[in-house]
Design goal:
This protein is an alpha+beta fold. It is 35% helix and 23% strand. The structure holds flavin mononucleotide (FMN).
Length: 166
């Protein structure tokens, strides 16, 4: 069997801290620092009650990160939606980790009132992935209204310094 060189990975999880809590800053700091070192790029979206994270990178590094993520107490109920061979070029360009809010209802993946997450067959996962990549491209080009998001003109180093400032 040929080893898979690059992967796209998509998962959703349930945040422990509410939206706008400062804990996401710590997550972003780790992501920016660690991902750049191992060639991972991606995007983290959140609502009040969901995280969705897309990752692209060398297969070993992405699998290793996902193992760490599964142990992180800042979220629960990780649900791996996609782990697929990918071309070397990342859909997230050189963004080690983008961050934005995410309108889960728009992609049809909002949780029910009782908290249940909709079941996503593979074709729905593909649509969600494509929708998220489009949203990422839009924010990477035009920016986001969210102060904690990286702005298009900002270098990754400046972004890391900004979100690390007290
Ligand atoms: C939703 C979520 C997304 C995360 N994304 C990343 C990531 O992309 N890269 C990363 O290294 N750590 C990420 N983390 C943090 C890891 O789980 C882990 O705490 C961190 O990698 C440990 O490395 P550190 O000691 O350098 O912070 C994430 C955590 C959460 C809860």
């Amino acid at each position: 069997m040929t080893a898979v060189a690059f992967l796209n990975l998509l998962y959703r999880s349930v945040p422990v801290y509410a939206d706008f809590d400062d804990s996401d800053r710590g997550i972003l700091r780790s992501a920016l620092q660690n991902n750049a070192e191992v060639g991972i790029t991606g995007y983290l979206w959140r609502t009040g009650d969901q995280f969705v994270q897309a990752l692209h990178g060398p297969a070993d590094a992405v699998d290793e990160l996902y193992r760490r993520l599964a142990e992180d107490p800042r979220h629960d109920d990780l649900d791996l939606l996609l782990r697929a061979p990918a071309p070397a070029a990342s859909p997230f360009e050189n963004w080690s980790m983008g961050y934005d809010h995410f309108i889960d209802a728009e992609l049809g993946i909002a949780r029910d009132l009782d908290g249940a997450r909709p079941i996503l067959p593979p074709e729905r996962v593909t649509q969600v992935w494509d929708g998220l990549v489009r949203a990422a491209h839009c924010a990477m080009q035009f920016g986001s209204i969210l102060p904690m998001a990286r702005s298009p003109q900002e270098s990754e180093a400046d972004y890391l310094a900004r979100i690390s400032a007290p």
